[in-house]
Amino acid sequence: MANGCNAPENKNEKLPEEIARLIEEAKKGEHPESRLIGVLHEIQLRYGYLPRDIMDEVAQALQIPAATVSGVASFYHFFSLTPKGKYDISVCMGTACFVKGADKVLEALQSELGIGLGETTKDGLFSLNISRCLGICALAPVLTVNEKVYSQVSPRQVPALINKIKEENDNPDGAEK
Length: 177
Known about the structure:
By secondary structure, the protein is α+β, with helices and mostly antiparallel strands. The chain folds into 2 domains: 11-75; 87-170, Glutaredoxin, CATH 3.40.30. Helix 1 packs antiparallel against helix 2. It has helices at residues 17-28, 36-47, 52-62, 66-75, 95-99, 102-113, 158-170, and strands at residues 87-92, 126-131, 143-145, 148-150. Strands 2-1-3-4 form a 4-stranded mixed sheet, with helices on one face.
């Protein structure tokens, strides 16, 4: 049943079933806010980021301030408040990687992709971020594309790397064109 504004009374009706179910489970506990990170994680898995309207619905459903939800989402680096590209590139800026030229690799990526740090290309293929030490300092400088690690990357290798990813995206089965 709708209220006078034609909005559903149960805001969870707009949420995907698995997220609505998580929220309902969280509401059963004594402290529903303690499950907030898990709910936000599931939302990010589904959408690739945390849409503002969905976070507002979560806040309302769990009866916690929207500012609290937003604060949690912005505090933890693994949450994104903006859509990410299909290929999320993250350049390690730990000490070893930085000393070995990670800043130059980052500049080459920005130039090649035409985007800045924290941005996504217009076609939605690539987003560019930095990370702290990935723990593989002997292979510096290092970057990741989604979960795949690329080591000892030089700025000169960047155009070929981006082209390779684009080709794999255009031809996911590896079949000849």
